[in-house]
Each structure stands twice: as structure tokens, then as C-alpha cells.
Amino acid sequence: MKVLLTGAFGNIGRSAVEELVKQGHTVRCFDLKTRANERAARRYRGQIEVVWGDLRRPEDVAAAVRDQEVVVHLAFIIPKLSATGVESEDRPDWAREINVGGTRNLLQAMKDLPRPPRIIFTSSCHVYGRTQDQPPPRTVADPVQPVEHYTCHKIACERMVRDSGLEWAIFRLAATLPLAMKLDSGMFDVPLDNRMEFVHTRDVGLAIANGVSSEEIWGKILLIGGGPRCQHSYREIAGQVLEALGVGTLPEEAYGSIPFCVDWLDTAESQRLLNYQRRDLGDYVQEMLALMGYRRHLIRLFRPLVRRWLLEKSSYLKEARKARADWRGKVAIISGASGGIGAATAEKLAQEGLKVVLVARRKDRLEDLAVRIRKAGGEALVIAADLTDEQDRLRVVEEVRTVYGTADVLINSAGIGWYGFGAEMPWTLALQMMRINMAAVVHLTLLFLQDVKERNSGHIINVGSIAGSLPSQGVAVYSATKSFMDTFTTSLYRELRGSNVHVSVVKPGPVSTEFYDVASSLSAGLRMPAEKFAVKPEAVANRIWTLLRKPVRIVYVPRLLGLVPWVELYLGWLMDLLGPLLLRRQLKPARSSVEV
């Protein structure tokens, strides 16, 4: 079959050329005549026909499409560095002339032929916009939501292709990393917790080649991704690649925080029709290592210099360093600092240059933490206090005023939990929980606000729980106290909106702390079942530090838990039905362990 590829010498183009030639097709390649493209073309000498030209010139396009049976349209100016050295977001009018105008020229040239060829247009999963707040995977039926010029161009071209009257297929591609050592600033634009589906460039080439010969793909939009085994977080993808290359994991603050327009995809239909999913991220890493050759040993040898060079490309790291300097020397009060999230947060903030005030009942543990912080070069003040007692709360604030004059940050991290039937919870324990989870938070916050509102500067961060968004069986009072914290935070946030006093709530899921041991040791308490899904307290501490640098009202740890409020909204009825059954099943082994 006679096949024309536009943009044939780019990342995906070369994979498609190789697979089309391998399958015996007659391949014509259309691309700009640059030194890089000429070098790439020489690799296929005698196997392909090359037509040099520009999509913006109708006569060049007409010459390229003549006598072809299928056109695979790959050529596009992309958001990050293209072969021209300019990206679509820098010069949107110029990019539109090539992307949209060039596609229009191509479609017109095809329609002008006596026997118009079919067209496969390669689009992108970017067209779905930012979808990290929605449950995956993305499907063909999902609405498109462009957030950049590039995706506007893709959507416009998809529409032109569908309305052209030609036989068409549209492939929306997942993240396709190049088989080349191209580490540029764009790698830092994706948050580490962002869902991302990887697809190997060679698998995309196979999908295109198989599509050319298929009779079932025409008139369809297909999602092209690596499949379930290639669905990762960006942390996993970047980590595997950088570790394999010898660079090592880079600091989280080097990466952006705005959700990126990639996600996991439903590729069941495309795999059924095209049978292309052969490789995974591990295969990509091995190919990269082979391509690097001796250079990977040089990277390991000069690793500190390479890391420094790479980190200099991150604008986010520069912002983080500036934010760190802005917070250096400021005072943070941290309740519940004797362990868990509170202790991890105290160490993190001290590491970033803040003076930390450690508040909890157990003075010995606070002193141990203070010693660790001081040995690391930080400053810590220990105040042993029972936060269920109003006088102790007043004393904490007065001691801080005596030593530091005022505080800049309040982290309400202290709290207790309990698991079991609500009817079996002792009233004294329920009262204690409300005093520490609610009364202490409100009182410390109001006392803190008296100081920070006067100087219009400060930040309150309340450590809540996902249980506040999903009232669950076994934690009735605990869920209620955390729901109260959510409402209290939101109300204050709206009161203070527009000022320089910020209020936030962090909503983690299970966290790997002694919280579970304490909860099960309380009167009539049982072991909570969610412990096996716990994240480390350091993950919450890192998110708290991010909040100080970029204040928002609410964050989830991990971010995927942002879907939970939707679960309660749409599936709360199911929880109503299953709650009693689930609780009985969960409590049975817990009771057995207590009896033993």
C-alpha cells in the first residue's frame, strides 16, 4: 500500500516509517528539509521516497499526496521544544498557520485527487484538559477541554478531518517519550503525583502501521496508550528514567503543581483493533540505556554537575528557593508534635529554616525531637501542654509571645481517633475527642488570628482527614470532628479571602503513624482496617510545606483522594446499604484479636 507520512522524521514518524517498511508498504516521507531531517532520512536510503516541503505551501502538499492510498498526518508544532526550536505556546499564530493551516492544505489536496486517499490523523490525550480531579480512565466519549494553543489546534484539526468527507481515523496518543537524550525544562511541568499513561514510540508506530491495513478503524476515534501496565504516576516514570540514566531522583520542589493534561486511557478498543501494546516503561528504559552507551558512565561520574545543570532548568525550583528564603526565620506552632504528622512537619519546616514550637503532652518525646532538629541546625522550642485543657492552650500562646513576640504559622495537627460501633463508644472518650479534635483547633486558631490579623500576615493549616468527606462506619464521632474542621476551615478561608492571612486544610487518607496503636488502646477501641493503605507522614509534611509556598484552601494526600467527595455525592446510597455489613465484617477479626 502507498502511504504518505507527514512529519516523518520526528519521534513517532521514525517509528512509523520503520514499521511500515517492515510490513512491506511503499512509504513516502514529507518533512521540512533540515540538517537533522536529512540525517534521519539517510538511515532509510533505498527504502523510502522523500519529498521535502512545507505544509504551508499548497503546491508542496499537492506533490506529496499524489498517487497515495493512505496519509498519516503527524506533522505538528508541539507545546515544548520542536525541531524548529520554537514551541506552539511561544508563537501561537505561527503555530496555528502550520498546524491548522497545514492540515487544511493537506485535506484540500487529498480531496482534489480523482481517488482521494484515507487519512489517519494523530491527535493527543491533551485534548481532555486537566482531569486529575476525575476518576480515570479517559474515554473517547469524555468532553474535550483545551487549555493551551496546542490542544485548540488539535481539536480544530480533528473537526476538519471529521467534516472533510474523506475516510478518516483519529488516534489520540498517550505520553510518548522520545528515544533520545532530551532533558529540557518541560520535564518539570508535570506534578509528580500526576497520573500519566506511557506508550512506547515503537508501539505507536506499530499501531499506525496496523491501522493502515485495517478495515475496521475508519470513522473511529481511538485512544492509543500502553495499557494498564503502563499506567503510572509521573513520579514513577521520571524516577525510573532518571535513576537508570544515573541522574537519580530530583527534589519534588523542582516540579510544578498545576495538573498536567495527561491521564490514564481506556485503550481496550484500540488494542482489539490494532494489537500494538508490546512494550512497557522497563523496555523504554533499557533502550535508552543502550542508546546512551558510554555516556551513561560519564553521567554517573559527573553526577553532581549533571544534576545541578538539570535543576537549573527548573523555574519551579527557583520559586521554591525564593519561598524558602521568605519563610526563613519565621515561627511555626505545631500541635501534636510528639509523633506522626506533627513530628514530620516540625522536622520539615525546621529544615526549611523556620523556628518551630513543639506542642504536645509528652515532654520527653518533644525534647528528643528538639534535639534532632537542633543537631540538624534548626531552632525548636518545647512546650508540654494538654490541649484538652483551656488554660494550657492559653499558656501555649503566651509562652510563644514571650519568646518570639508572635507566630507566623499554626499547624493544628493534634488529634485522636477511635474505631468501633458508635453506640459502644464511652462518653468520656467521645468528649475527649471533641475537645482535642474540635475545641483545641478552634481555640488555638482564634487566639492565633488575634495576632496575625493585625499585621495581615500568617497561615493556619488544619490537618483533617478524608473521613471528613466520607462519613464511614466505625468512626462516627471521628468523621464528625473532621467534617467540622473542614467547615470551620472553609468559613475562615472565605472570611479572610483577599487578605494575606491564609487558612488551609490538609486531608490525608490513612497515614503510617502510631495513630492506629493509640486508637485501638483506648477504652473499647478496635484496630482500624485501613492501616495497610497508609502513606508516610513525610508525604503529608511535604504537602504542608508546599501549602506555605502556594496557599490553597484544601489539598489531599495523596491527590487521588480528591475523588472521594464525588464518591459520597453519587454513591452515598451504596455506603448506606453496605455500611452495617462492612462494619460487622471488619469488626469480627478485630474483636477476635482482642479476645485472644
What this model shows, in words?
With 596 residues, this protein is an alpha/beta fold. The chain has two domains: 2-179 and 198-242 and 261-288, Rossmann fold; 329-595, 3-Layer(aba) Sandwich (Rossmann fold), CATH 3.40.50. It contains 20 helices and 16 strands. The strands form three sheets. Strands 3-2-1-4-5-6-8 form a seven-stranded parallel sheet, with helices on both faces. The chain has a seven-stranded parallel sheet with strand order 12-11-10-13-14-15-16, sandwiched between helices. The chain has a two-stranded antiparallel sheet with strand order 7-9. Helix 7 runs parallel beside helix 9. Mean pLDDT is 88; it is low at 81-86 and 587-596.
How do the strands and helices of this protein lay out in sequence?
Blueprint: E1 2-6, H1 11-22, E2 26-31, H2 35-42, E3 48-52, H3 58-65, E4 70-73, H4 92-111, E5 118-124, H5 149-162, E6 168-173, E7 195-197, H6 201-213, E8 221-224, E9 231-233, H7 234-245, H8 268-274, H9 281-292, H10 295-301, H11 303-311, H12 315-327, E10 331-335, H13 340-351, E11 355-360, H14 363-375, E12 379-384, H15 390-404, E13 409-412, H16 427-455, E14 458-463, H17 476-496, E15 501-508, H18 515-521, H19 537-549, E16 554-557, H20 564-595
Parallel strand pairs: 1-2, 1-4, 2-3, 4-5, 5-6, 6-8, 10-11, 10-13, 11-12, 13-14, 14-15, 15-16
Antiparallel strand pairs: 7-9
Helix pairs in contact: 1-6, 3-4, 4-5, 7-9, 13-19, 15-16, 16-17
